[in-house]
Amino acid sequence: MESPEIEKFRQFAQKKVGKKIKKVHTFDSRVFKTPRKKFEKLKGHKLKKAHRHGKYLALETDNGLWVILHFGMTGKLRSINIEKIPKHTTLLLIFDDEDSLAYISTRQLGFLALATDFKKYLEDKKVGKDSQQISEKQFLELFAKKRGILKNALNNQSVIAGIGNIYADEILYHAQLHPQRKINSLTQKELKTLYRSIQDVLEIAIKARTSFSRLPTTFIIKNRYRRGSCYRCKSKIKKIYVSSRPTYFCPQCQKKVI
Ligand SMILES: [Zn+2]
After folding, report:
1. How many angstroms separate the alpha carbon of residue 197 from the centre of ligand 1?
2. Which domains are assigned to the chain?
3. Fewest CB atoms within 10 Å of the CB: 5, 17, 77, 113?
4. Sheet of 47-53, strand order
5. How far apart are the first and last CA of the chain?
6. Cα(160) to centroid of ligand 1, in Å?
7. At residue 107, does pLDDT exceed 90?
8. What separation in Å is there between the alpha carbon of 13 and the centre of ligand 1?
């Protein structure tokens, strides 16, 4: 899951702000990075704000605690009917108005933690700046120092946080840059285009509420299946593997510069 999906969860959690946590249920699961019983400390406190940084969601409470949620590939955040708790529910917060917030981890690839400082937590985990909060200046400075393959840097959460495999392809397609370009071969103009492309693609994806059907036809994700072609030049979309990740691009619009 990439930052647009997490942003959807953030907006959902934000609707619960101001509600007081009446009960906390934790269920046996390996996703807990903090002992389950510590989550009891949330009881009696209100949700203050929902934050997102990259692929992390953090729920801040009025007693200074942060519930940190990472969703892995298939995690979910839902309000549920507490009479029928869904399978794979790992953490369940019940509010004093009987509303609820459930973290459901189907494949248990995500994780949950409790922290007293989200910023410090991210620093300890060496998470890079959020891909939507980073300024153009910071981005240009960061990439001026980087080496290696472009797509790998976009996917590396310690370089820039929030972009995964699907949106990295989309961003590079819109910036018309080959996924295997060497970062140090990029001109200042290309880096600025790349920055703009990150902002535009993520914003559009968030507005589409990450539903692929609502994404514009100019997105490569809409054209990458079965003999799909580039909307700009009509070339056939090509699939390669970059660091063993499936990668789609237009060989005509995204030429490799050696
Ligand atoms: Zn093309």
Report:
1. 16
2. 3-124 (3.20.190.10), 129-249 (1.10.8.50)
3. 17
4. 47-53, 56-61, 66-70, 111-115
5. 32
6. 26
7. no
8. 39
